Each structure stands twice: as structure tokens, then as C-alpha cells.
Amino acid sequence: MFDVIIHNASLRFGNHCVFEDLNLTLKGGQWTCLLGGSGVGKTSLLRLIAGLPAGETTGKVACQDGLSVNHRIAWMAQQDLLLPWFSVLENITLGQRLRRNLVDMLTRRPVLSAEVQDQAMSILEKVGLTEKAHTLPQNLSGGQRQRVALARTLMENRPLVLMDEPFGALDAITRLNLQDLACELLQNRTVLLITHDPLEALRLGHEVYHLQGQPARLTDAITPPGKTPRSLANNDLMSLQGKLLDRLRHESFDERAEGQ
Q: Could you tell me which of 114, 153, 147 has the C-alpha nearest to residue 130?
């Protein structure tokens, strides 16, 4: 496990400065959660960390162990991004197929080694989808599709996981269940989760930050008490949720007022 350090990061689109001199440390083996209004630069920060920036950037992203973040990142987006013509098993092993460039000459479909197939089936068992291995995405529920996306992330087996609102489109109960599952299966990974949901951030995050303003700045970290995933019966958690909601609500009101 290693820390990931974002040092003096800045992003501009022409004359518009999204954020500048932004410093953040993602602690090794922990979840860092990032809240903020739409358009404040949360996804742009994820892209900068992943080496996929758009716009003019400065600053440095480095790992505490001295190695590059390149090839050490898995990404889980809000959309499941499943290929509709591939089965569940084929979707979660897409990275392995592309990197190995092995194709069955008869079916023209990528070939998997027995080792990779065993690994994939083991992960599908963990996410509760063993019986759906050969099912096409259109025959899955929204929650099942997002579990496939989680399985694909696990198949990449990277130490740093960037998550861009992966549970945002799900109903409340499915979202809670997926939060618990992700927390269990991504133990000992360094995770940065973007979310609009204060409760989600407080349940999962070892540290919770709020990105706000123009240019955007990070608030001091909130460190929720207790072990993750935290119980909804935790009174301290509910109190923190209320404070965060109030902060986000006033931020949204202030932005609307400035635009008038």
C-alpha cells in the first residue's frame, strides 16, 4: 500500500480556472471521498490523476513509493459501460482480452486462458453473479450491471481505484448493498470516490473532502468515526450528514445567486 500525492495541481480551460494549487494525499489502503457541486471539477481531478486531462494542467501526481501511477489505476464510472454484444464473463475480462490480443480463428472472439477464466469466475462468485456469466447485459437489472462493472474493476487488480459516482443511478437499497460489497472487495486498495451523496461519502470514506468555489478549493478533511461501511444507525454519522447537506445546499444557493 502506498500514498498517492497530488501536488499543486491546476487546471484551466482558456481563461477559466477550474482549480489551482490543489494539494491532496490519498492515503494508502484507504477510501478518500470527494463531494462537490456539478461542474466544480471533481471528474476533471480524477482524469488528471489518471493522466487523461483535458485543458491546460500543471502540478504533479506521484506515488509515495517513488513509482509512477501509470498502469496502477482501475476506473469505475457512473455508467456501467458494458459492451452489449459481450456476455458478463466477456465484459469483465475485456482488459485481459485486449492486452493479450488472442482471437479464436473460428468464432473471431478473444480467447481466455484457463487461469484468467478461473479468476473471473471467482470474482463473479464474490459479486453474486456466477449464474449470469454467459448472460448478455440487456438481460440484467441495473444493480446487476453495476456489479458486473465492479467485477471488471476487480479483474484489473490495480492498487489505485478511481470511482466516479458508480452508485449514483441506483435505487437507495441497491446503492447501500453495492456500497457494502465494494467496501468489502476493495479492502487494502487506495480508493478515490467521487459522489454527490454525503451519506455515501460518510459511510465509506476514511477521509471526506468538499471541493467548492471558483477556482475550486478543498475544505479540510472530515474523518468520520467508526469502521467502514458505517451503520445507518450511527447517530454521529447522521449528524455529520446533516452538516454536509446544509453546506452543499448553501453552496448551491450561493452559485445560483452569483449567476443572477
A: 147
What are the domain boundaries of the chain?
1-72+159-260, 80-157
Cell numbers given for 16: 477559466
Within 8 A by CB and 6+ apart from 22, the residues are: 6, 8, 9, 10, 45, 59, 216, 217, 218
What residues are paired with 171 via a beta bridge? none
Give CA–CA dist 12/21, Å, rounded: 12
- Beta strand 190-194 pairing with 31-35: parallel
Taking a C-beta distance cutoff of 8 angstroms, is the pair 230, 241 a contact?
no
Positive/negative CA dihedral, 138, 181, 175, 3: negative
Indicate the pTM of the whole model. Answer: 0.89
Question: CB–CB of 91/154 below 8 Å?
Answer: no
CATH number of the 1-72+159-260 domain: 3.40.50.300
125 vs 86: CA distance, rounded Å: 19
Is residue 213 exposed (0-12), middle (13-18) or buried (19+ Cβ within 10 Å)? middle
The rounded average pLDDT for each run of 10 residues, N- to C-terminus, in the chain (260 residues) is: 94 92 96 92 92 87 90 92 94 85 57 86 96 97 95 95 92 93 95 95 96 92 93 88 83 49
